[in-house]
Amino acid sequence: MLTITATNTWEETHPGGKIGLLEISSVDNAQSVPALDQEKHAIEERLREKFASFSRNDFLELPVMGAYHHYYRKFGYTYHVLLQLESVVFKGKSLPNVSPLVDANFAAELETLILTAGHDVAILRDPVTIDVACEGDQITQMNGKQKDVPVGDMLMRDAGGVACTILRGQDNRSPISKTTTHVLYVSYAPAGISEAQVQAQLDMMEKHVRLFAPKCVVEQNTLICAKP
Question: Of 6, 2, 3, whose CA–CA distance to 154 is shortest?
Fold first, then answer.
C-alpha cells in the first residue's frame, strides 16, 4: 500500500479541501468488460434523463459543480467535467472506451462530478505527497506538452515530479495503461464539497472495478481532509 501524505502548505492553502484515495491491486486491465459497458450505457441514459432540461447555469447551481466552478474561475479556467457532461447530455456523445480502469473512473466521475485521476502504482516513487504548486513547478502532460502549473493549484507529486494537478491534469509518466494491474485513483475536491460526496466517488469506482475484477484487493479507500 502506498503511503500518501498532505503537506502543511496544502492544508493551509486549501482549507476545507479533500482528497480521496482509492488504491486497488490484482486487476486485469486488458480485457473486454461487457458488464461495465452496460453500466456505462445506463449512466448515459440516466444523465440524459436527469439533465435534459438543464442550462449551463442550472449545472453551475449544483453544489459540487458550483464548488469546482469557483475553484477553476479563480485561475481563469472552466471545469472540464462540465464540458464533458454537456457533450453526453446534449450532443449524444458516448462515454469513451479507453480501458476498464480508465472507464470505471470516468463513468463514476460524470455521475458524482468529483474530479479524479488514475495512476499506475508501479510507476509512482516515494515520497508521494498532496501539495500546492509553487513558482517553477511544471508538468509534462499526457500529450507530451510541458506546461507551467499555476501557482496555488492543488496537485500530487512523487519523487519523479508533478504527477497530476487539478488545472493541468495528469502527467505522461504515471497514467493507467493496458498493463496496469495496481491502480491509484485520486479525487481532488476543493472547499464546498463534503466528505460524503467524495466518498461516493470512491465507492462507485470500486463498484465499477469489481464488475471486471471481482477478486481485486482494495489496498486503501480513504480521505485526507484539510480543516475548514
Answer: 6
- In tens, the pLDDT along 117-172 reads 999 999 999 999 999 999 999 999 999 999 999 999 999 999 999 999 999 999 99
**Cα→Cα distances 37→106, 213, 214, Å:** 12, 14, 16
> In this structure, what DSSP letter does residue 150 have?
P
pTM of the model: 0.96
CA distance 135 to 133: 7
Give per-residue pLDDT as tens, 3-56: 999 999 999 999 999 999 999 999 999 988 899 999 999 999 999 999 999 999
Give residue 2's identity as a one-letter amino acid code.
L
Please say whether the beta carbons of 223 and 18 come within 8 A: yes
Measured in whole angstroms, the distance separating CA 77 from the mean position of its chain's CA atoms is: 17
**Residue 114: closest CA among 173, 194, 210:** 194
Q: Which among 177, 187, 183 is positioned nearest to 68, based on CA atoms?
A: 187
Which one-letter amino acid corresponds to residue 157? Answer: R
Phi/psi of residue 76, each to 5°?
A: 85, 25
Q: What is 4-31+99-225's CATH number?
A: 3.50.40.10
Q: Report whether 22 contacts 184 (CB < 8 A).
A: yes
Which grid coordinates belong to 6?
Answer: 498532505
Q: Which three cell numbers stand for residue 166?
A: 487539478
